[in-house]
Amino acid sequence: MGNRGMEDLIPLVNKLQDAFSGIGQSCNLDLPQIAVVGGQSAGKSSVLENFVGRDFLPRGSGIVTRRPLVLQLISANAEWAEFLHCKGKKFTDFDEVRQEIEAETDRITGANKGISPVPINLRVYSPHVLNLTLIDLPGITKVPVGDQPVDIEQQIRDMIMQFICRESCLILAVTPANSDLANSDALKLAKDVDPQGQRTIGVITKLDLMDEGTDAREVLENKLLPLRRGYIGVVNRSQKDIDGKKDIKMAMAAERKFFLTHPAYRHMAEKMGTPCLQKVLNQQLTNHIRDTLPAFRSKLQTQLLSLDKEAEEYRGYRPDDPGRKTKQLLQMVQQFSVDFEKRIEGSGDQVDTVELSGGAKINRIFHERFPFELVKMECDDKEMRREISYAIKNIHGIRTGLFTPDMAFEAIVKKQIVKIKEPCIKCVDMVIQELINTVRQCTNKLDCFPRLREETERIVTSHIRDRESRAKDQVLLLIDVQLSYINTNHEDFIGFANAQQSSKQSSKQSNAASQVIRKGWLTINNISIIKGGAKEYWFVLTAESLSWFKDDEEKEKKYMLPLDNLKVRDVEKGFMSSKHAFAIFNTEQRNVYKDNRFLELACDTQDEVDSWRASLLRAGVYPERSSNVSNWVFLSCGGPHESQFHHSA
């Protein structure tokens, strides 16, 4: 290749890979490597076997490669193979190599066609190979087979992405020529992480199986889907040749003859075939290692200094020193205290972008869940009038009164105030539960010390429970204080004196009716298939109406729903549905939207449901305690779905 130092680059990286695999980690260093990516039956295994000149990879139907295989090819005078997990054992029979790969795969994944990201390290010494390191990844599949999990496609994709998303990884995208290149799974994945094609090498297999009159000339000339590193065509053995134990040397001679004699490829025959591919990969990997070496060395030195600094703390360390243990214990307890405070105050270093937790969850409980629970106590007007009538009559006794007695007013008001106790206690319970959840999250860092974690959780949780009873007593005391005396002179009490002032304020409030309360994407699911089916719209909620637009630019309004006489009610979650739902309907039995009387709003989480209901509550759309419902219209947050709710009016 050039100088001896360049030839030693690949073996050097091989030693690093073995060292990191031996300790079970990569030390966060992205080693330069080549990942082989392709669909099932794309010919990946045949390409690798042609490199070695031996049959040594498992074959069969479905997913055969179920763990990444780190294949290190090393030029040597003799021919043998070694596994990292079988140190000191040399394999000269390559049938045994295949059996060992199958056994080691089953040891981790089992025999049910499952997959695992834990690699198998195989080193092959041979006079017929060039120094080269490749990672053979599982073939991309679409349909689970046997006992495979239903998300097998996503699992394989995630595993492949773990390797090819690294900038230090070259991608060997293997695609069969007898399939549409535009639909190549390998090239699609490569384009996702390498859109400019800077580190992708295309390999076109099965050129001899293309339909008569067709060829892949434009692809191999890098004209159709250009890659910076180009394409190389190969011809592997057919399944019949493999079953017939056709010698790989004869197969490579046939491959050479194919390119020299084919009219579409003979002008580029010197740039095609397995030997050329092996040379190109050797050169590309060596150059790639050379290019990434400065940054790699800098990162390695940085980590070495960091580890030296950490190791310095333990020089002269005595495990039996009680002072050391006490210091470490205090540091962990102090860290727990800091983490708990950060989660509540909202200044944590690691921000959760998936769901609300800690202080944010408690904030939602106070400002959304608690007000909603209070409004749910809304009583029936008819029932209230009946209670007032009975209270007045019972206080007057046999006499006929001219004025409403104060005792009747106090009896009714106190009965309503008592109802506040239940939502207040429920609010305390929800806050306590979130505090306990936060404690458990903060003790995750103490997993290495199970007893310390258990004791920390027990002590802090016991303290929270103790304060819970005191908090509830205090809340109930405040409610009892309100029950003990009804102050009708308070400025918030309307009465006759403040009625006129209240009417003036209401005119000012009407100016704020157009204020936007909430915006968000919702999907109307009840649109008939004839009219296009479920569609997603941008919704805007104000104090007067609920409007939806074509998109979030709010230029094309689709509908505006006035909020007059609307109410909200809960809806049971469907058995097959992953959504949480509630409904909007008109109390006067009028249609809410077109021919539909009801709107059912569904969200991915219960928190979203509570948030929307709280927003509607601010707009004056109150919950109803019970109602007969039918003719549902479905709205969902986050995409169309088929509601599993069934109701008979």
From TrEMBL:
Gene3D superfamilies: Dynamin, middle domain (1.20.120.1240), P-loop containing nucleotide triphosphate hydrolases (3.40.50.300), Pleckstrin-homology domain (PH domain)/Phosphotyrosine-binding domain (PTB) (2.30.29.30). Its EC number is 3.6.5.5. InterPro entries: Dynamin, Dynamin_GTPase, Dynamin_GTPase_CS, Dynamin_N, Dynamin_stalk, G_DYNAMIN_dom, P-loop_NTPase, PH-like_dom_sf. Pfam families: Dynamin_M (PF01031), Dynamin_N (PF00350), PH (PF00169). GO terms for cellular component: cytoplasm; microtubule; plasma membrane; presynapse. Keywords: Cytoplasm, Endocytosis, GTP-binding, Hydrolase, Microtubule, Motor protein, Nucleotide-binding. CDD domains: DLP_1 (cd08771), PH_dynamin (cd01256). Residues 28-294 form the Dynamin-type G domain. Transmembrane segments: none annotated. GO terms for biological process: receptor internalization; synaptic vesicle budding from presynaptic endocytic zone membrane. GO terms for molecular function: GTP binding; GTPase activity; microtubule binding. It comes from the Eukaryota. It is found in: Cytoplasm. The keyword Hydrolase applies. Residues 515-621 form the PH domain. Belongs to the TRAFAC class dynamin-like GTPase superfamily. Dynamin/Fzo/YdjA family. This is dynamin GTPase.
